[in-house]
Amino acid sequence: MPQLSDRVQTFTDSVIRRMTRINDAQEDSINLSQGFPDFDPPKEITDALAEVAKKGPHQYSITFGAKNFREAVARKQGKAIGRTIDPEKEIVVTCGGTEAMMSAMMTICNPGDKVIVFSPFYENYGADAILSGADPIYVPLVPPDFHFDREVLEDAFQQKVKAIIICNPSNPCGKVFTREELEFIGSLAVKYDAFVVTDEVYEHIVYDPYKHIHMAQLPGMYERTITCNSLSKTYSITGWRLGYLIGPEKVIESAKKVHDFLTVGAAAPLQEAAVVGLNFGEEYYEQLKNIYTKKRDFFVKGLDEIGLKHTVPQGSYFILIDISDFLAMPQFTGWSDLKFCEWMIEHYGVAAVPGSSFFREPVNHLIRLHFAREEKTLKEALRRLGEMAKQLNCL
Length: 395
Ligand SMILES: Cc1ncc(COP(=O)(O)O)c(C=O)c1O
What we know:
Layout: H1 15-24, E1 30-31, H2 43-55, H3 67-81, E2 91-94, H4 96-108, E3 114-119, H5 124-132, E4 135-140, H6 150-157, E5 161-167, H7 179-191, E6 195-199, E7 225-230, E8 243-246, H8 249-263, H9 268-278, H10 282-306, E9 309-310, E10 318-322, H11 324-327, H12 337-348, E11 350-351, E12 353-354, E13 366-370, H13 375-392
Parallel strand pairs: 1-11, 3-4, 3-5, 5-6, 6-7
Antiparallel strand pairs: 2-8, 7-8, 9-10, 10-13, 12-13
The structure holds pyridoxal-5'-phosphate.
Pyridoxal-5'-phosphate is lined by residues 35, 96-98, 122, 167, 171, 199, 201, 230, 232, 238, 243.
């Protein structure tokens, strides 16, 4: 058989999605690994989908997105960033935020271009960089508050970088970048003439008192910012694969070509049905925030009662749990976080993602859980985690 490309030898399959498969192979295991809700999308959206099934459209939409979908995105996001967004020239509708990020990277990167990535990072960015030929430069977000060192960041910018990728709110650490931090990053992007690629799929899952600031809303930043966004998390429709890119006309003109040849377009019937969600008023997003705030508080309280050490997210729905106390026990000597997660599924029926898949640094003591689950499911997951801690008797 002829050789496969060198490219595909340099990254593994997604550990996040692999953990879901391992979870699903085990009866009655609770999947807190891959982040998606177990509750229904808003009824208005599913009702619209039922209508679309009868009325269509069922054929291709315009490759860079159905006109009414783009117009709805332009209205919603234009209001959020305080400027008029041209739905013809400044938006590409993609197959999820995943394709948005890949298209952005392929649009701006030549092989060998350097791109700054904060660590911990969302797993996909590593593969996005490899597939687009970029070389990541990792800048640590330092626990416990996941701040970055301004000098370290400027040193990275000095290495002639093409872009910086920001995940805000951040998966997996739950950081919400402050206005001051974003202004500082923006000032470096201007100083060193780099793009900012910002992944804002959790923009509406931000807990009080934190506030989401869009990089594109900061003075002078729209011109160099490419925003990757998605409907997956905001409307609980991760399976619909709807996302979009927003950016300056010149970037979007090229991104449209990349997107067209990658996928032709996002599913037309689903775009049509999702417009109703994009047109929701502020109260929808307030309610979403309240739902997740309740879940976060419930889950955090439960983890505290068990005695597990963990992060408390400012945004997104992920929590990193410190498993050092477990790994220090004789029966786990030499274990990786991956092995621990596999063991946890097999013995306690709770799936997590090994933290090492998010860090550049050699981290082996963290696992990531999400809480986008019904309260009864979270309660049962907490019971199982409590059982595990008790039986191991280490807390
Ligand atoms: C930070 C981040 N970006 C992008 C995505 C992917 O979003 P989509 O489902 O729209 O492809 C995820 C999914 O978990 C995510 O956590």
